[in-house]
Design brief:
Length: 468
Amino acid sequence: MDHYEMVVIGSGPSGRRAAIQSAKLGKSVVVVDKGRRLGGVSVHTGTIPSKTLRETVLNLSGWRERGFYGRGYRVKQDISIEDLIQRLKKTLDHEVEVLQHQFMRNAVRSIRAAAAFKDKNTVTLTADNGAVNEVRFDHALISVGTRPHRPTNIPFDDKRIFDSDEMLELGHLPRTLTVIGGGVIGVEYATIFSALDVPVTLIEQRDTILDFVDREISDDFIHQMRDRGMTIRLGVGVKDVTAHEDYAQITLADGRVIRTEIVLYAAGRTGNVGSLGLEAVGIEADSRGRIKVNPETFQTSVPNIYATGDVIGFPSLASTSMEQGRVAACHAFGVHLPPPPETFPYGIYAVPEISTVGQSEEEVRKSGVAYEIGVARFRETSRGHIMGVDSGFLKLIFALEGRRLLGAHIVGEGATELIHIGQAVINLGGTVDFFVNNTFNYPTLAEAYKIAGLDAWNRMGQVRPEAD
């Protein structure tokens, strides 16, 4: 029977990082994944495909140039689903190739099989052909990810009603699309298809979408969606969904009826823990398949078995999952890392992008800290004029006492890249004076930080530090 110092179940971002980190520490490692190819949900149905789809749509539709040339502008007049899939396949092939090379370079073995725990030091591996063997381990890491939540009352049929994984297998671009669920996945797909000029309706039973985002940012985002013709139904639940030959029909709780060619149901995800045999080792998962862990070490209730990534719940980001995998592997082998910064960026790859780091205005207000805000609109920057950007803004929140940056929030072009300036300043304890006194490249969208800093500085009514 083979024996490894680390067995990693799942090859998504956190599993990949844990495996390579373990190998870097000189440990014997095997990665077990039941998928046809390495990479997990992130590479094949989640992060990479949706972002690739977004980039392809923005390029082919000419979306970024419409500020200059008008809403009717298109780079390619007749965009087909084949145009989108072609680039998608090329990107996924590259991602898998890079991952395989990383594993080879670090002597990480990978096995295609379904893994189930037999006891706290043994997993049973079942291959596609039914062959079964066992592997012993010192430590194991569960990084199996999640799958779309599929309620029994929603008649998924791969023709009219889809989940977010199945949306990548559409045979053609829909004439109309209705998205149920105003979370990150629902919003990303809704706005991507809207950028293709598909009429889109977005339904969310809560009173707002993206409720963890600063309210001013989400309000502006909703305004931009409505401005381009999207229909947003907030504060109303779905009573019934039915599939018909040529359309799907959604009946809302308030009695309104929506007819649409395609429905995307994107309301939550569930951990892929059903076949892991967690009961054999005494690990419990909640009703959505999430595993509880120590938030500092990522140990489950069984100390030598760790869990990381989406299967442990919030924040369910590829970026944070990678760090979780690294921390778990280091802890397993006695390498003590300093605690990571509490503040990390959150990117939403909708059209337009949203990115946020630190506290929202609502959170600062709730904490009781006196604060001031600085705002810069992208259209106020020369770079914004050059790009034809007529919307989007940056919002900075500063504590009045000490003048420290508490939060940075962006909606608009390049938000997920620009946010890292705010992240660095927050985590290094920077103040409004950083933005006021430093020089930014001109013309850039990053210059918006200077404008927002000056806006806040003027509101604070304080003199420059060198004049004190």
